[in-house]
Amino acid sequence: MTQTVMELTPSRVATESAVYRPLISLKSVGKVFRNGTEALRRISLDIPSHPQFVSLLGPSGCGKSTLLRIISGLDTCSSGSVEWPTSMHDVQARPLEQVGFVFQEPTLQPWSTVFDNVYLPMRLKGQRRKDAHDRVMEVLKLVHLDGFANNYPRQLSGGMKMRVSVARALVMKPKLLLMDEPFAALDEITRLQLNNDLLELWQAQGLTVIFVTHSIYESVYLSDRIVVIGARPGRIVADIPIDAPYPRSEEFRTSSVYNEHCRHVSAQLKAAMGRPGESSP
Amino acid sequence: MSDEMLEVGVNVPDDMSPPPSRTFQSSAEKWLAFAAPYLFGLFFLGGWEAIVRIEQIPVYLLPGPLLILHTLITDFAILLPNLIVTLRTTLLAFLAAAFGGLLLGLLFTFSRWVERTLFPYAVILQVTPIVAIAPLIIIWVNNTQIALLICAWIVAFFPIVSNTAVGLNSTDRNLIDLYRLYGASKVQTLFLLKLPSALPYYLAGLRISGGLALIGAVVAEFVAGTGGTQSGLAYRILESGYRLEIPRMFAALLLISLTGITIFVCLSLLSNFLLRNWHESAAGE
Ligand SMILES: Nc1ncnc2c1ncn2[C@@H]1O[C@H](COP(=O)(O)OP(=O)(O)OP(=O)(O)O)[C@@H](O)[C@H]1O
Ligand SMILES: [Mg+2]
Q: CATH second-level architecture of B65-282?
């Protein structure tokens, strides 16, 4: 219950405008569920306001989804605070539409067409179908699905459904895209293709992406920063920059730089898993 | 550097395809699978007719299927008013159950208190045999038609209430989160998300209730046993039994079965039509 809104008072602007102001600032965030599970402990993390591709990498059950839900405002933290210094939350500390969320499953409405699924966020904001048409078709084109606007989800492959889900997250022009293991359920070939498409989108749209994954290969390929999270309780064990230039292509996957990064991240993760939190049995 | 180390905890099932089901392979087999129930029916009716003729069973014990069909056609003018009465009770009770069940199901999901308070009584109504309550209702309610309607309604409405409640509660958690994320109002969440999610469950409830409404109406008619112009098919069965007009009794029975089948088929068609775009059970074919 500690999501705060920083008022943009003139004095603040005056004193801080010269200073580096992150998009989101997590300050010592902790989460203990009602059943006593400590999911997160003292997570401090700044997400800069310039477009960045951040991966949260960690073993299953370490609290990645919980962290993402707290960032999105779907869940609250039990200690610490989530601050949006550039004030993307409204007064009730509810995230505004500049946050897009992509779940692990496509999470589409089976009774709605692809068009209506993507139109949904705009519809909930009271926009008319007619007025939304151009924007919806635009994002469908971005995810290469412009020919499928009138199809129903069950007529699409798993990869296509995921693209619809990404299009829906993009339709409100978010500044921040949260993705919770979006491609984990897809086959390898589709996953690689969607990775490339996502990078393309990310660069073209000027987004910040927070991407949850438990694949080292995927995180190194995509990110310019990997935050490694250890388990029980979830805590940050390493914050690794991946300083390989974009655009990245298939050559990058086989380069020695890529392998070097994978090895480094893997070592960090291994160290993290062998070093459990003090409180664990 | 091993693969397991890199793919931390990735848990991909070896086989994503559904378990092999018993399917009919060749076209001959498919044809047989289609024809089997009809062949069995023909075989059964043929055997019945044959036994009745060979053993010369008197019609007041067991009429043959041909005679029953013949009686149905010749006595149709007598049976039609009874059919209309039964059908009217059934449909009115079904409609009342469809709307009442939906409203109560909605109420249940809006207020846990209402659910906790009323659900036990809905269950009690459901598990108490209608034959046992029907005489009371017929005594209490002056108008027999309304008494019959209430009996049929009691039988029909429970599956709709419980299915609606289950359907409304089974909305995809992630979709609910998505609606929350975009600040959807309660009304938006209900009409755009919860009601559509509950539709398949509601329709399944309707399919069960359609048949139950007919059963409730017929059982109540048996208990009421009223004669006159306002009597249904059950009364015709009782009366034919007393008069030993057994073929007509069977014809009335056949009409009840046909009515039940028609109701089920209509509701299945409605369900398939409404769910044609999205629900797996209606997909394909
Ligand atoms: N609603 C909840 N109530 C109680 N405990 C919870 C709840 N949600 C998650 N947890 C627990 O919190 C921990 C972190 O869960 P979380 O789903 O965030 O992990 P994760 O890193 O996303 O895992 P995965 O990679 O498997 O998705 C787990 O131990 C989980 O059992
Ligand atoms: Mg998760």
A: Orthogonal Bundle (1.10)
